[in-house]
């Protein structure tokens, strides 16, 4: 999960306990691929949102740190979606990742954008976010 944190609220190395996983809010900006590699190398995996319960858990966990709007990137498919009106639109044929905007709705964005990320520490890897896949 890649996020856009409120600059005044960034705390490097901040941990939040969200049973059964611990989320680690990473304050260095990375692309989706960079964040995924970092989370897999340093922790268990990137945090994912596969349903309403996952989203609620992350938002509840993140609330004290004023995440505001955030970015999340993923591949694949899921029955769970929260698209902003008119999204996904793959504008310019370059938007293949998902952004969580300030209203916590989703919009597609370029995977090369850099954002803050959330990793998790747990017993086994979660699957990557399965939000959508364009077939253009």
From TrEMBL:
InterPro entries recorded: C-type_lectin-like, C-type_lectin-like/link_sf, C-type_lectin_CS, CTDL_fold
SUPFAM superfamilies: C-type lectin-like (SSF56436)
C-type lectin domain: residues covered: 18-120
UniProt cross-references to Pfam families, sorted A to Z: Lectin_C (PF00059)
Keyword Disulfide bond: yes
Record SMART domains: CLECT
Keywords noted in UniProt: Disulfide bond
Coiled-coil portions: none
UniProt entry tagged with the keyword Transferase: no
Superkingdom, taxonomy of origin: Eukaryota
PROSITE patterns named among the record's database cross-references: C_TYPE_LECTIN_1, C_TYPE_LECTIN_2
Name of the protein: LYAM1 protein
Highest classification ranks of the organism: Eukaryota, Metazoa, Chordata, Craniata, Vertebrata
């Amino acid at each position: 999960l890649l996020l856009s944190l409120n600059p005044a609220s960034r705390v490097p190395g901040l941990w939040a306990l969200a049973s059964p996983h611990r989320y680690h809010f990473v304050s260095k900006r990375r692309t989706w691929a960079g964040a995924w590699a970092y989370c897999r190398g340093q922790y268990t995996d990137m945090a994912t949102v596969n349903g309403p319960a996952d989203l609620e858990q992350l938002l509840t966990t993140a609330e004290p740190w004023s995440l505001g709007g955030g970015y999340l990137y993923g591949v694949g498919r899921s029955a769970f979606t929260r698209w902003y009106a008119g999204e996904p639109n793959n504008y310019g044929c370059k938007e293949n990742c998902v952004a969580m905007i300030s209203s916590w709705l989703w919009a597609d964005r370029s995977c090369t954008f850099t954002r803050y990320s959330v990793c998790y520490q747990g017993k086994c890897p979660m699957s990557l976010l399965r939000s959508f896949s364009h077939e253009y």
